[in-house]
Amino acid sequence: MKATIKKAVKAGLIVLVIFFIITEGCIYSYLKLYGYGIDELLGTTLVYFHLSQGFTVNSSDEHSVFIGRHNYIYDEMFEENGYYQADRMGEVGFYNKAVEGEEKKWVQPFDFNIISTSNWCHWFRVYELRGEYKIEDFEMNLNKEVWE
């Protein structure tokens, strides 16, 4: 009886390892296709398995590029950090800081916008965040609330 359980556990682990290796290979092939490499593989795997909201791969003062979930609109995360979607034009969402007691409305200039680029696959999507923020700025606030 114990030998049968051991064999079943070993077989299950082997299947799990094979699944993980195939997943990593698929993710890596798409990363290479979009100009990224092995450095982004771990972060992208965490994004795919919903252990991360995304991570920055390139940034400057007013613009950052990050890898996030392929079908995820970040409205909920931004709202939890005090921002609301003021406008949306197709793949571009425009966000402003919510002011206590005021109606949420369309006001320019926007605090930031997020663009869902055409670089995407089943595993992830590449986004542009225009403004002085990085995706980690929002995720950190979200995680901080969980631990407090």
Give structural notes.
The chain has one domain. The protein has helices at 2-33, 41-48, 75-80, 135-147, and strands spanning 54-59, 63-68, 83-89, 92-97, 112-120, 125-130. Strands 1-2-6-5-4-3 form a six-stranded antiparallel sheet. By secondary structure, it is an alpha+beta fold. It is built from four helices and six strands; from the N terminus they run ααββαββββα. A hairpin with a 3-residue loop joins β1 and β2 (63-68).
On the 0 to 100 scale, the average pLDDT is 87
Report the radius of gyration as a whole number of Å. 19 Å
**Biggest β-sheet, characterized?**
6 strands, antiparallel
Tally of individual helices: 4
Report the strand count: 6
Distance between the termini: 46 Å
Provide the descriptors you would attach to this structure in a database record.
about 150 residues, alpha+beta, 4 helices, about 25% strand, elongated
